[in-house]
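Record passed on underneath.
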Amino acid sequence: MKFRNWLTFLVLALLTVPLLAACGPKKVDVALTTYKITPDTTSANSGEITFHIHNDATDLTHEFVVFKTDIPEDQLPLNDEGVVDEETAGITLIDEAEDIEPGASTDLTVTLDPGNYVLVCNTDSDELHYQHGMHIAFTVN
């Protein structure tokens, strides 16, 4: 009878481990280059997500901003300075990593509910990065 209990425990453990791994934090690698954001995926399951951000540009400092919105990625409202208006109706600022120097990496961990998001570089120094195309849609299931 002990062998049967041990076998049952082993089977349950083997079935549970993959489920626990799937529920853990998700990691999304993101490359920032001159006027482009390239994540290794454009969707993830809801929950805690860590964006591992690397600035691959050799010439520009970037930032990485996560907005929740149903507005198309290339139509976010701009303020008078020409950057995305982070306080306007229709978008919710989730979090951001600022001043990512060329060659530097940083992590940004956020908890995201299901919905539509936009990942943006909203830097206004040097050039208006959002207006140059530094944005991409991201979906959370």
